[in-house]
Design a protein that fits this description.
Layout: H1 2-16, H2 20-39, E1 45-49, E2 56-65, E3 74-76, H3 77-83, E4 92-97, H4 103-131, E5 137-146, E6 149-153, E7 158-161, E8 177-186, E9 193-197, H5 201-211, H6 213-216, E10 220-228, E11 232-239, H7 246-251, H8 256-264, E12 269-274, H9 279-286, E13 294-298, E14 303-308, H10 313-317, H11 322-331, E15 334-339, H12 340-377
Parallel strand pairs: 2-3, 11-12, 14-15
Antiparallel strand pairs: 1-2, 2-4, 5-6, 5-8, 6-7, 8-9, 10-11, 13-14
Helix pairs in contact: 2-4, 5-8, 9-11
Length: 378
C-alpha cells in the first residue's frame, strides 16, 4: 500500500507537472476527511505520510479523563495506560488507526478529495504557465468545433478560438495545426479559460517579431498596427539605428519575411509604412499604395485634407473606403481626400470669398468715413 501510493504520486507528478509535495498534501487532506467521516471525530485526528516510504499514520488524539462523557474525544486513564504506561490524567494521548478500517464510504470520500485537490493543483499550474504568456503567440492543434468556436489543444490544456476572433472565411479541420494570439487568460470555477485570436492586430505584430530579427532585437520598433482581418493590414515601423531601413527589414530579401506573414494570414494584404513624427509625411505614407500630392492639416481638430491626382483617387480611398479608413486609424487623424480639380475649385472659391469679404470691408469703411463727414458738417 505504502510503496504503491508513492508510485501513484510520482506518476501524477510527472504527467500533470504538479509538485509531489502538493499531491501528498492532498492525500493527507483526503484521508483526514475520510477519517472524520468514518469515526465522527472533529479536530482530534491527524494524518502523517512519510514522503519517502509512503507509510501512512492516522492518529486519533484523546484527552485522558477520570470519567469519560465523550468517547470520541476522551479516554479513561485505565485505557490510556494500555497504550502508554506513563499516561496521566489531563494528558493527551494518540492512538494509531488502521487505514483499512475506514471502510468503503471513507475510501470513496478520500478518492473524491484527492481528485479535486489534484485537479485544482493542475489548474493552478496551467494558469501560472499561461498567464505569463498572455500577449504571445501559442501553437495548438484543432480538436473540434462547437457553435462555430474552435477547441484548440495546447498540450497542457485546451483553449477557445471564438468565432469573432477568427479570420473571416478561414476554416480548420480536426488535427490541423495553427498559431494564434493568446489574448486572455482568466480563472473560473471550471479551471482557467484561455481565449485565442487570429484577428487581433497584435497577432500580426507578433508574427513580424518572429520573422524579423531586427524587431525581436528592438532595433526596429512597431509603432502601430491596424487591421481588417482577412483583407488588409497597415503596420507602421521605425528604426532606432539610422543605418537600418525599417521597411526593408520587414520586407526581407525578395519579400521573404513579409510573405511568410502573408501566408500565415491566408493572403491578407500588408502595407508596411515608415513612421514619421511629421503628421503630413506620416499621413501621406499611410495612404500607400496611393501617391499623395499634398497634405494640409488642422492640428486643433486633428484633421487632414489630402490632395491626390484624379488617377490616384480611387486607390487612395480604397475599396469601400478601406484604405483611407485604415490610414485614419493608423495615424489617429481624420482624413478627407479630394482630387486636384476639386482642390483648385476649392482654392478658387476661397479666393472669391476673400475678395468679397475684402470688398465688403472697404465698402463698410467708406460708409463710415462719409458718415463722419456729415456729422462734422452738421
Amino acid at each position: 500500500m505504502s510503496r504503491e501510493l508513492i508510485s501513484v504520486i510520482e506518476q501524477i507528478s510527472r504527467e500533470k507537472g504538479i509538485n509531489s509535495e502538493t499531491i501528498i498534501g492532498a492525500v493527507k487532506s483526503a484521508l483526514q476527511v475520510a477519517a472524520k467521516k468514518c469515526f465522527g471525530a472533529s479536530d482530534n485526528i491527524q494524518v502523517e505520510i512519510d514522503p519517502k516510504s509512503g507509510e501512512i499514520q492516522v492518529i486519533l488524539t484523546k484527552m485522558i479523563v477520570a470519567d469519560v462523557t465523550n468517547p470520541k474525544e476522551e479516554i479513561s486513564l485505565e485505557e490510556a495506560k494500555k497504550i502508554d504506561a506513563e499516561a496521566e490524567l489531563g494528558d493527551e494521548i494518540g492512538a494509531l488507526i488502521e487505514v483499512g478500517d475506514f471502510g468503503r464510504i471513507a475510501a470513496q470520500t478520500a478518492k473524491q478529495v484527492i481528485f479535486q485537490k489534484v485537479r485544482e493543483a493542475e489548474w493552478d499550474t496551467v494558469y501560472r504557465d499561461f498567464i505569463n504568456r498572455q500577449g504571445d503567440i501559442v501553437h495548438g492543434v484543432i480538436l473540434g468545433q462547437e457553435n462555430r468556436n474552435y477547441i484548440v489543444d495546447l498540450g497542457k490544456t485546451e483553449a477557445l478560438l471564438p468565432h469573432k476572433e477568427q479570420i473571416p472565411r478561414e476554416t480548420f479541420r480536426r488535427g490541423d495545426r495553427l498559431r494564434a494570439f493568446l489574448c486572455e487568460v482568466k480563472p473560473s470555477a471550471k479551471g482557467p479559460q484561455l481565449i485565442l485570436s487570429r484577428s487581433h492586430p497584435e497577432f500580426v505584430g507578433k508574427l513580424f517579431a518572429i520573422e524579423v530579427p531586427e524587431i525581436y532585437e528592438k532595433i526596429v520598433e512597431i509603432k502601430s498596427v491596424v487591421r481588417e482581418p482577412g483583407d488588409r493590414t497597415k503596420i507602421a515601423v521605425c528604426s532606432k539605428d539610422p543605418s537600418v531601413d525599417p521597411v526593408g527589414a520587414c520586407v526581407g530579401m525578395k519579400g521573404s519575411r513579409v510573405q511568410a506573414v502573408v501566408r500565415e494570414l491566408r493572403g491578407e494584404k500588408i502595407d508596411i509604412i515608415p513612421w514619421s513624427e511629421d503628421p503630413r509625411v506620416f499621413i501621406a505614407e499611410a495612404l500607400s499604395p496611393a501617391v499623395v500630392e499634398r497634405v494640409g492639416i488642422d492640428e486643433e481638430e486633428k484633421s487632414a485634407l489630402v490632395v491626390v491626382s484624379e488617377q490616384q483617387l480611387s486607390l487612395a480611398i480604397g475599396k469601400k473606403g478601406q484604405n483611407v479608413r485604415l490610414a485614419a486609424k493608423l495615424t489617429n487623424w481624420k482624413i478627407d481626400i479630394i482630387n486636384e480639380t476639386e482642390y483648385e475649385k476649392k482654392r478658387a472659391k476661397e479666393k472669391e470669398n476673400e475678395i468679397e469679404q475684402s470688398m465688403a470691408r472697404e465698402i463698410s469703411s467708406g460708409a463710415n468715413i462719409e458718415g463722419n463727414k456729415e456729422g462734422q458738417g452738421g
